[in-house]
Amino acid sequence: MNETRPASMASFWMPFTNNRDFKLHPRLLVSAEGMYYKDVDGNTILDGTAGLWCVPCGHAQPKIVAAVREMIGQLDFAPTFQMGHPAAFDLAEQLMAYTNHRFGHVFYTNSGSEAVDTALKIALAYHRARGEGSRTRLIGRERGYHGVGFGGISVGGIAGNRKPYGAMLPYVDHLPHTHNLEKNAFTRGEPEHGANLADELERIVALHDASTIAAVIVEPVAGSTGVLIPPKGYLKRLRELCTKHGILLIFDEVITGFGRLTTPFAADYFDVEPDLMTTAKGLTNGVVPMGAVFTKPFLYEAFMQAPAGIELFHGYTYSGHPLACAASLATLEVFREQKIVEHAASLQSYWEDAVHSLRGLPHVIDIRTIGLIAGIELEPIAGKPGARAFDAFKKAFADGVLIRTTGDIIALSPPLVLEKKHIDELFGKLAKVLKTLD
Ligand SMILES: Cc1ncc(COP(=O)(O)O)c(C=O)c1O
Predict the structure, then answer these.
(1) Ligand 1 centroid to residue 113 C-alpha, Å
(2) 432 and 300: one domain?
(3) What is the position in ligand 1's atom list of the atom closest to the CA of 281?
(4) What would the pLDDT profile of 366-392 be if each residue is shown by its tens digit?
(5) In ligand 1, which atom is closest to the CA atom of 144?
(6) Quick one: 116 and 205 in the same domain?
(7) Phi and psi for 149 in degrees, rounded to 5?
(8) What's residue 3's pLDDT?
(9) Is there an atom of ligand 1 within 6 Å of 251 CB?
(10) Rounded to whole angstroms, how far apart are CA atoms 429 and 396?
């Protein structure tokens, strides 16, 4: 027996996993390098999902590994409550530079979920700080995914993530989602139809009054709900309406940040300026957990008008952890040195053509692509939603490619350092899998 196999799998309550099925048929990864994982049986698996969208620079990136190793020997932990360490400040400056100084400040968290809850709290506290404390309502969107904190699931719109957990946050409303297979199937980039759905915000404003609404939060491209790409003009319209009504606009860029759309952020791709931006994942190349909320200068300034003392009663023990900061600083260096975003952009059309070559295969009812993301929607098996795509996931893994599925949608988001040969391998194997599905 392979010595790296765990003696028992009983005690680990696995997240977002069919535990009973997994423990009967485990998929155990033991190492990773570049574009590939190795599993416990020695098989090589092409990473079609950058882990969980979080490894843009590829696995075991030497510079990032070295930076974390060095930091752990130097400063294993340092508080950031009434204390600090240089890397946390250096990183904040570099992150702001990476946004071309369109944002002014960074609040560190440890995950995307915490970044979302932090952004929502900053939005609420901001309005209160400047005397508009009646703005307590938060607006999310159907099919949105904003992590698993109570704030995130309240503004999120995936039923399965909400229904076991009771009432959640009060004063939350949802915009409609923008997915429209009848009008927009097999689109490359932004779909034509649906910008008018942003106008639903007017309906919500008319119902509750703008003076009660603090913020709107959306994923510029929704990932976990199955790759929903905003219709042309939709995000710009949302921005206009938020500005008109004094509502803060939060972009949840946890998956779209750091090059995924072939621009640094989705805000760049869509040329829309949110007031706050949540990030995580690619921020440290997935090496050390970290999230960050980017805020426009006016937000921080509003808090600095308060009487002397702590301005924002919020933070995490590990906000700005030295290892996470080291990983993130090194990640930014790799982005610069290896021109990761430019490389991703150079592959975009090859990627798009490869994805759309799956059109016509059995059960494929939609294909959508943007940046280095793909969504491949399968016809569900009657009475068994999600089963067909999950079967594809298992078969693909057995054939040596890691894909991700949500419902009956296959979502692909490879490390941005991939080459054409990896695209060929990914879609060659995936096409074979799709042909074998019931
Ligand atoms: C858009 C978005 N927001 C938030 C999160 C939550 O991030 P985390 O799992 O790091 O808490 C995710 C995770 O996939 C995400 O896609």
Answers:
(1) 6
(2) no
(3) 10
(4) 999 999 999 999 999 999 999 999 999
(5) 1
(6) yes
(7) -70, 165
(8) 61
(9) no
(10) 7
Q: What is the pLDDT of residue 1?
A: 42
User: Among residues 337, 368, 389, which one ends one of the domains?
Assistant: 337
pLDDT over 90, % of the chain: 99
- Pocket lining: 257 vs ligand 1, CB cutoff 6 Å: no
Inter-residue contact 206 to 171 (CB < 8 Å):
no
Question: Ligand 1 pocket, 255 CB below 6 A?
Answer: yes
The total domain count for the chain is 2
In whole angstroms, give the CA distance from residue 417 to residue 396: 21
Length of the chain: 438
pTM: 0.98
Phi, psi angle pair for 104, to nearest 5°: -110, -30
Contact 261, 370 (CB under 8 A): yes
Say how many CA atoms lie within 13 Å of 365 toward its Cβ.
14
Question: Residue 291 CA: which ligand 1 atom is closest?
Answer: 10
Indicate the residue type of 15: P
* Full residue range of the structural domain in which residue 266 is found: 65-337
Query: What b/e string do you get for 116-155 counting C-beta neighbours within 10 Å, with b at 16 or more?
Result: bbbbbbbbbbbbebeeeeebbbbbbbbbbbbbbbebbbbb
Distance 218 CA to ligand 1 centre (A): 12
**221 C-alpha vs ligand 1 centroid, how far in Å?**
12
> What token pair was written down for 427?
């879609």
| Six-digit token string for 66 | 């070295």
Spell out where 267-384 has E strands.
276-279, 291-295, 364-370, 373-378
Q: Does residue 162 share a domain with residue 292? A: yes
Residue of minimum CA distance from atom 7 in ligand 1: 112
| Ligand 1 neighbourhood includes 254 CB (under 6 angstroms) | yes
Question: Which residue carries 């040195």 as its tokens?
Answer: 337
Q: Which two tokens stand for residue 135?
A: 């703005």
If one counts every other C-beta atom within 10 angstroms of the C-beta of residue 218, the result is: 25
Bridge partners of 31? 38
Do residues 162 and 196 touch, judged by C-beta distance below 8 A? no
